[in-house]
Amino acid sequence: MKLALVGIGKIAVDQHIPAIKASDQWELAATVSRQGSVSGVATFTDFDLFLSQRPDIPVVSLCLPPVPRFDYAAKALKAGRHVMLEKPPGATLAECHTLTRLAEDNGLSLYATWHSREADKVAMARSWLADKTLRSLQVTWKEDVCRWHPNQDWIWQPGGMGVFDPGINALSIVTQILPVDIHLRDATLMVPENRQTPIAADLAFYHPEGARISAAFDWRQKGDQIWTIEAETDQGTLTLLDGGARILIDGREADSADGNPLSGEYPRLYENMATLVARNGIDADLRPMVHVSDALALGRRVAVAPFYDDTESKPR
Ligand code: NAP
Description:
By secondary structure, the protein is of the alpha/beta class. 31% of the residues lie in helices and 27% in strands. The protein has two domains: 111 residues, Rossmann fold, CATH 3.40.50; 152 residues, 2-Layer Sandwich (Dihydrodipicolinate Reductase, domain 2). Helix 3 packs parallel to helix 4 and helix 7 packs across helix 9. The N and C termini lie far apart (55 Å). The site of NADP nicotinamide-adenine-dinucleotide phosphate has 21 residues, from helix 1 and helix 3.
């Protein structure tokens, strides 16, 4: 099936293009990007022109940051195209609902992807937890923003979500592996005094059976990067490491994988999209986004030291 990739930036180059090129289900038929392009692929810089000139391409995959993405998604659905969204699915919940309604009304597929849910050991964690009584679950997601988002300004702008941009990946796993729904009860957001969005956040959740659920996100981590979820149950402890790529049960590696266990995430997203399009299906689970919106609504703001990336000069 022909597909157009929109927003040729970091994630398009790192993950989407290799996954599409390796797939026998998809053909990268066009790109739409003001600056980026892919050698040998038709290039558009204007999305309206793309929609009017290429009615033969039925699917668009949107790799833009969340704030500009809604207008592209709405135009694509109104023009009769199936739409695949990078995470987070939007800047606000209301615009995500609008997209879902547009897809429903037009009989089109909408896929709000959560790539971390496709990490190798997430499905195993979900089935291991299914018949256990949860006592506590702790998320620790600590990474170096300068390493993973070099000089990206949108993450610090309203709608960019700050540390929740990676934190929502953890929440996408938590909402996938827990058999019950949780909701946010308390949040503290550490916001650099020169920025709009948090650089760190501590969250606590209500769990219907009383388990203690918490999350610590921090973008100021140097050295080892930590993407861990630890769940203590009545029958032992489960630890997901490296963003869901490894799993330990009671401290022992439960199921090791050959090669890079994160390399399957984007190929699986494109397989899922092919399946959805075949039945005009919609997959738009907004639960991770609800937790982030709640944290931004309920969170206590604490001003912390200003943040400057590599391109900015610090005031003397
Ligand atoms: P990025 O490189 O900063 O931006 C992607 C592309 O979007 C840019 O190259 C730009 O292309 C286009 N764009 C940016 N701002 C725009 C605007 N205001 N209007 C229209 N187009 C605009 O971002 P990214 O890191 O790839 O992240 C994009 C999305 O992927 C985010 O939602 C992020 O959470 C998600 N994601 C990122 C990573 C990662 O490691 N970076 C991992 C997983 C998911 P043109 O200027 O050429 O038009």
